[in-house]
Amino acid sequence: MRIDIISCVPRLLESPFSHSILQRAQDKGLVEVVVHDLRDFSTSKSRQVDDYAFGGGAGMVMTIEPIDACVSHLKSQRAYEEVIYMTPDGERLDQSVSNELSLKGNLIILCGHYKGVDERVRESLITREISVGDYVLSGGELAAAVLADSVIRLVPGVLSDETSALTDSFQDDLLAPPVYTRPANYKGMEVPEVLLSGHQKKIEDWRYDQAVERTKARRPNLWKE
Ligand code: ADE
C-alpha cells in the first residue's frame, strides 16, 4: 500500500510517520508514505496556494491549480483507488472505514487549510471526504495522520502479533476489556483473580463479559444484542 499526502505544511507530518509502528511498517516495505508540499506545485513566485473567496467574506480558499497539478502528477505515475479530502463536513471516520481503506492499494490524502478548498476540487478530483470528528482542527494534517495511522496498523504484517488488531476496541463493535500487568498487587489494588488462574477458557469468557459490560456502560450506541 502507498499513501501520498498532499499538504501545504508538510513539516507537520514529519514526526507521525517516523517512529514506532508506522516507521517499522515502512522499513519492512509493507507501506510507503510520501508527503508532498503543495507549494511545489504553485506557479506563483511566492509559492501561494490560496486566494480570496469570490463573493467576499473572511478567510482564504485553497486554489484548484496546484492541487490539480499535484494530483495529476501522482496519477501519471500509478493508479489510485481513492483521493480523500480531510474535512470536518466529511463522512465520520470509524473502524469500519479504516478496515475498508486498509484493503485498498494506493491512496491520496489531501489536507485542507484556511476556509477549505475551491468546491471544484471536491467535485472533480476528490472521491471521498472524511472527518475525524465533530470539531475543527487548524488544518487537515493531524486528521490525515489519524486516518493513515488507523489504516496502516490494519495492513497485514504491520503488527507483529497479527491478532492484536483483532482484539482492538471496535473491531467487533465491542470496546476492549481492561488489561493488567505486574505487579499483581499494587498498594492493595489487586488484579482480578481469574487473570492469574491460568485457565484460558475462563479468562476469555471474563474478557468477553467485561467488553460487553464496558460497551453497554460507555457506548450503548455500539451495543447490539
Ligand atoms: N480539518 C479540520 N478539521 C477536521 C476534522 N475534524 N476532520 C478532518 N479534517 C479536518
Provide a brief overview of the structure.
The protein is 31% helix and 19% strand. By secondary structure, it is an alpha/beta fold. The protein folds into 2 domains: 2-152, SPOUT methyltransferase, trefoil knot domain (Alpha/beta knot); 167-222, tRNA(m1g37)methyltransferase, domain 2 (Trp Operon Repressor, Chain A, Orthogonal Bundle), CATH 1.10.1270.20.
CATH top level of the largest domain? Alpha Beta
Distance between the termini: 36 Å
How many H/I helical runs?
7
Q: What level of helicity do the residues show?
A: 25-40%
Radius of gyration in whole Å, from Cα?
A: 22 Å
What's the SSE pattern?
Answer: EHEEEHEHEHEHHEEH
**CATH superfamily assignment of the largest domain?**
SPOUT methyltransferase, trefoil knot domain
Q: How many domains comprise the coordinates?
A: 2
User: What integer is the average pLDDT?
Assistant: 95
Shape: elongated
Percentage of β-strand residues: 15-25%
Tell me about the biggest sheet? 5 strands, parallel
CATH topology label of the largest domain:
Alpha/beta knot
Number-wise, the strands total 9
Which residues form runs of ≥5 with pLDDT under 50? none
Instruction: Report the CATH architecture of the largest domain.
Output: 3-Layer(aba) Sandwich
Order of strands across the biggest sheet?
2-1-6-5-7
Structural class: alpha/beta
Cofactors, ions and other ligands in the entry: adenine
